[in-house]
Design goal:
Blueprint: H1 8-24, E1 27-29, E2 36-38, E3 45-47, E4 53-55, H2 62-82, H3 89-102, H4 107-117, H5 120-127
Antiparallel strand pairs: 1-4, 2-3
Helix pairs in contact: 1-3, 2-4
Amino acid sequence: VIELGGQNEHAVVEMLKTTWQMLHGGFVNVDQANNVLYDPVTANPVFIDFGRARRVTKTLTGRSQAILQVQINSMLGDLVMATVPRELCGVAKATVAKLQEEIPPLPALKDNVCKFLSSKALANKWEACEGAEQIEIPNC
C-alpha cells in the first residue's frame, strides 16, 4: 500500500496515469507493483524493472489470450487494488474512469482490461468506497 502521508493522493493518481500510459502503448508487466518507486519529496512514481514486461499489439486468441488475461489481472490487481490505500479507492476509480476515456488501452488489450475492471473482486473493493458506486467506467 502506498504510504506517503499527505501525498498519497498525488502518488495514486500519477501511478494510475503511468499504468494507463503503459496499457495505451500495449505494455503489460505482471511484476510492476513490486517495481514502482516513489520520490519521497514529490511522491511521483518511477516505474522500474521491465524484465517481465511484454508488448501486445494484436489481438490474441486461445491459450495466448487466456495467459494475457491472467497477466493483466495480476498487473492491475496489484496496482489498482493492492497498492491504493482504502481511503483513496474513490479517487482511484474516478481516475481510472477518466484515463479509460482519455488514454484507453491499446485495442489488443481493451477487452482484457475491461474484464478486469468489471471483475467481482474489483467491484467488491470499489463497493466499499465512499461515492465510487456512482462512477461509471467508460469504453468497456
